[in-house]
Each structure stands twice: as structure tokens, then as C-alpha cells.
Amino acid sequence: MTRTGEEHAGDPPPGGGPWWWSRARGAVLDGTLAGASAVECAFEGVGFARDAGLPVPVGVVFGALAGSVLLLRRRWPIAVVLVSIAVLPAQMGFLLSIVGLYTLAASELPRRIIASLAGMSFVGTLIVTFVWVRQDVARGNLTWGDWVVPFASLTTAIGLTAPSLLLGLYVGARRRLMESLRERADSLERELQLLAERAEERAEWARNEERTRIAREMHDVVAHRVSLMVVHAAALQAVARKDPEKAVRNAALVGDMGRQALTELREMLGVLRSGVASANASRDAVVPLAAVGVAAAVAADRERAEEPVAEGPCLSELDELVGQSAAAGMVVDLSVEGESREYAPEVEQTAYRVVQEALTNVHKHAAGAKTYVRLAHRVSEIAMQVENEPPPEASSASSARLPSGGNGLVGMKERVSALGGVFVSGPTDAGGFRVSAVIPAA
């Protein structure tokens, strides 16, 4: 289908107009033009009938029918132009020719078709005008000389074809430009909507990740300390009357561990508060930054980047971690291979949390079992393994009845995988349990 005028030829009218018109006012305009053209051609048909020796009513009806073809200009512009060319020898259809050429040039038909029909109309008008003027000169109606014949022919042909053709080409190009701009605007709107949906999805994903991270940090901080506190409380209950001095030591350990848990919780909450404050400061600084310029924005970002951030646990605290489990009655064997060195903070914190959670699981599920903690410093990675033997059948710590949420191993695997490492856990052939992790050093 090709678009002629304001709508595609053959398409149903999108605006509710009759037949092939998209709007009712378009139908009224074409009807008015067709009526004016029919009246013109009917009036000119009188002279045609007299010159051709035909009855006058025949010439009038022929002219009216030819002029009314203009009603189809939006539907079949080629037919309108061909009819206008066909009736040129009868000295009728000037309005039909002008409007038909305009509609043809404004349509989306191929340029070669428009050029061919416009050329035919120009040549036809030129020939017919040449014949008319020559006849008038021969009859003596014009006495200006022979030069008037080509001049009048060329001027009339250009005047009847060029303005309507150029105006139609301009209107068609402008219409196509507006349609292209509307399509681009619609496409841009769809892209913006898609980007907004993706941004909302990314924001939701980021919120879920942040909630998971906070839950994991809370689990790592609270579970280990509180598990040790419960173990010591159970031991304190068991030896309170038999060994008062040991009960005092256990009570002191419970207090120390409670204070350490509170300290870690305060540090983590401080990091969360500083992150919220930085986000609020960034939002509040949008207007001031527009006034003070980019340099001030860079300086503000640099100052925020240089603010001290609370550090998490590191591998240098591993001895203390193992000592706390030993103080709770666990038999722990710590071995370190390779040359100790500093790693990125997130690497050291992840390695520490893996060992911490593994020891916590031993307290929960294998109280009293001997445990081996191995740490290996390699060229491009750090490896750790926590393995416990089968728990004894009867253990004094079993009365602690530590609850388990089932999220410890999941959290360890998430931490290690986030750094590109490998995490493996499972029971051993001897009946114990083993947790292994390898984390890239970089």
C-alpha cells in the first residue's frame, strides 16, 4: 500500500471518516473541490461540444463526469492525473490538473512515477497551449508576432504544473518528516519506559542484595558470639556448684563475648547509617552542585570517599577466634601453611567469616568434637578448611540445645562465590564434617 494524501490507500479510516477518508472534514474538502471541478468542466464542455459537433448536453455531462473524478484524488491520484491529461485537448480540467498534480506530488508514490506523470502533464499542456495560441495567431486574434506562440505555451505549461508540483513535494516531505519525528518520539518514549522498568528492576535487585548482605552480616556477627555465650552459659550452669572458680571464669567469658558482639553490631550499624547519610547528602547536594560547579562536586565526592569506614575482622584475629572456641571447651588444632601476608579487606573478612561460621556449626551440631582449622597462603589464592571429627556420644555441651536456621552454609557459599572463589562442604568418611573454601588473592 502507498500513502496518498493523509492516509494509506485501501486502509480503513482510523479517524472514523466515510469510505477512504480518515476525517470527515477531508471528505467535505474533496467533495467541494470535486463539485467545483465538475462545474468548471461542465461549463467548458459547452465549447467542446460545439467545436466537436456534439449536442451541448453531451459535452456538459462529459465535463461534469470528468471533473467529478477529483473526488478520488486521495484514493487514486494517478487516475486523476491521467484523466486531467486526457481532457486537456478538450480545453477543460484546469482545476482537475492542478489539484491532481498536487495530490500526486504529496503522496508516497515512487519518485519516477511522479516525475513521469508530471512530465506528461507538462508536455500535454505545452502542446495544447501551442495549438490554441497558433490557431489564434492564424485567425488574427493575436497580432503580437510569432514569438508569442512558444512564449505563451511555455509560460502556461510551467504555470499550470510547476507550482502545484513543487507545493505537493514540499507538503509531502514535511508530512513525512513529521511522521518520522512522531515515530522517533514514540520510540524514545518506549525506550524511556523500558529503561525506567529496567531501572526499577535493578533497584529492586539492589534492595534484595542489600537485605541479603545485611542478613548475612547479622548472622555472622550474632550467631558465633551468641552460640559461644550459650555454650559457656550451659557450662556455667553445670559447674556453678562444683567449681566456683571455673564458673567465675565462664561468666567473665560470657560478658566479654557479649561486649564483643555489641561492638561488632555497633560498627555494622554505623556503616549502614553512614551509607544512608551519604545517599541523603548526595540527593540534597543536587541543587547546590548546579550552582557551585563540577569542581565542588568532585571535591565533595573526594571528601566522602576519604571518610573512615569501619573495618571488618581480618586474618590476624584468627588466633583469638580459635582461642574463644577453645575456651568454650572445644579441642581446636590451628595450622597455617605458607608465608602470611596482607590481602584485600574483603578477602580477609570473607576468610575469617568462613572459619567463624564453621566453628559455630561445630558448636551447634558436634559439641565436644575435635576440630582442625587449616589455613594455606598460596601464590595467587588463600585456602581454608575446617574439619571436625565425629562428636562424642555424651557431651556436657549438648544440653545447650543451640538452634539452627540453616543459613550458615548458604551465607558462606555466597560470600566466597561473590569473590570468584570455590566453596565445598559435606560430611567426611569418618562421620565428621568438612568445610573448604579457596579465594583468589586478588
TrEMBL record:
Q: Which spans of this chain does the record mark as coiled coil? A: 171-209
Q: What is its EC number?
A: 2.7.13.3
Q: Where is this region: Disordered?
A: 387-406
Q: Does the keyword Coiled coil apply?
A: yes
**Occurrences of domain Signal transduction histidine kinase subgroup 3 dimerisation and phosphoacceptor (ranges):** 210-275
Keywords, comma-separated and alphabetical: ATP-binding, Coiled coil, Kinase, Membrane, Nucleotide-binding, Phosphoprotein, Transferase, Transmembrane, Transmembrane helix, Two-component regulatory system
Any single GO molecular-function term of the entry would be: kinase activity
Stated name of the protein: histidine kinase
Q: What is the lineage of its organism?
A: Bacteria, Bacillati, Actinomycetota, Actinomycetes, Kitasatosporales
